[in-house]
Structures are given as C-alpha cells and as structure tokens.
Amino acid sequence: QMGALDRFYEMLNHDETRAFYGEVPVEAAAEMGAIEDLLITDTLFRNRNAETRIKYTNLVESVKGAGGKAFIFSSMHVSGEQLDGMGGIAAILRFPMPELEDLEIEEDEDEI
What we know:
Layout: H1 2-14, E1 19-21, H2 23-31, E2 35-41, H3 50-65, E3 69-73, H4 78-84, E4 89-93, H5 100-111
Parallel strand pairs: 2-3
Antiparallel strand pairs: 1-4, 2-4
Helix pairs in contact: 2-5
C-alpha cells in the first residue's frame, strides 16, 4: 500500500494529468475505465450513510472489473491519514486525462 501511495505522489509531481484525488475527478476517471490504481481509505466504507458506503464499494468493484487495482488504506495508519487529507480517495490513471483538472477545480470551489 505504501508503494501505491508513493507512486501516486511521484505521478502527481511528474505527470499530474495521470494522478487525481477527490471524489469528483476519481469517479469521472472510473467511468472512463482509466484507473490503474485506486487508493481509498476505510473511512469511506464506514460512512453512516449506507448509500455512500455502497457507492464506494461499487467504485472499487468497477475499477477491479476494468482491470485496475484497489488499495484500501487504514485511517489508523499514517498513509491512511494522508489520504484522508485528500478526501479519502485518489487514483493513478492508465493514461493522461487533463480534462479532469477542471473537475478538480470545480470540486474545490464547491467546498468554499
């Protein structure tokens, strides 16, 4: 798991159009079958809202079904805490998707 998080940070620094975090861009990438590695914290699976838990379970299954890998991080571990700080979800993509950068900006604006 630490290797996946390290690869994510490396990709974010060197090819930012293949590394995204946050619900909106990651879900959009999953819909396109673009996710190579999904990084997600267990916190999202313990959400009080059953629909939210189901949504993330389905996301993991979708990524695996498209040939990607899913890494579930414990929120009790430093790596999980780091991932929680990015919304609890991140992805390394198979190919660049610069159009997702606009979604990331929109998501940030929604939170303000």
